[in-house]
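Objective 1b of the project was to move from sequence-level analysis to a structural picture of ligand recognition. The entry below was assembled by the postdoctoral researcher (A.K.) and checked by the PI before modelling. It contains the amino acid sequence of the target and the SMILES of the bound compound, zinc ion.
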Amino acid sequence: MPELPEVETVVRGLAPLLVGRKVRKLEVLDPKLDLHPSRLPRNRMIRRVHRHGKEIIIDLSQRGKPQKPLWLCVHLRMTGKLIWTPPPSAPPERHLRARIALDRGDLLFVDARRFGTMRLMSDLAGAFPPGLDPLAPEFTPAALADLLEQSIQAIKPWLLRQDRLIGLGNIYASEILFAAKIPPTRPAGSLTPDEIRRLHRHTRHLLERAIKYCGTTFSDFRDERGRSGRFRRFLKVYGREDDPCRRCGRPVQRLVQQGRSTFCCPACQK
Ligand SMILES: [Zn+2]
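Corresponding predicted holo structure:
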């Protein structure tokens, strides 16, 4: 499943290809999508491509009086991919769920397992989970301390809650706690100011590093296998049960918290 850095990479890759393009036609091939072509007026220009948590937001708002806001919001979930193809249109991809014909090229929504969503919204208020984006400027050690305050939930499942920090998934949650030397079972509200600073710093650092890394291999992004293979080199604990800790050499431990695997080094994360 794509995590925040992968989604950010998709956004950074697509933005220069899409911004300024005009929409010619929306074709919905999967009736499971809650999307009707008539809701997308022709010739709307793509103003901006950005991200809120793991939601990709394509701004089709029309300036002028009165302003007509419209956003195409895409969540990739398990297997979704947003792919821009240059003209002339390529033959249809397998698992194609929607195609947006642009004045130059096509934007394809391809999704084998069909859990992804594509929605047209004219109002974004309340559209997304209310959490803080860990890459936004508002994410500071003080803001993190406020969010953590009084929580008795273990820090690892706390990191996965989308109503506190948005966009962190299972892989990064384990990796961030290892980097910050915090045990995954510690109650979130019990972290010391120093631990909170480390948690903040490593959350940012890990996500930024992952984005930088994803960005350098963007051409491989469509290749699920190739991507995860390269990605694994960067993981210190995730998926490494019983392998030696890269810091102290003792075996990495796997535990289950709220039904999800957590990987940690009990010696380094005390
Ligand atoms: Zn260790």
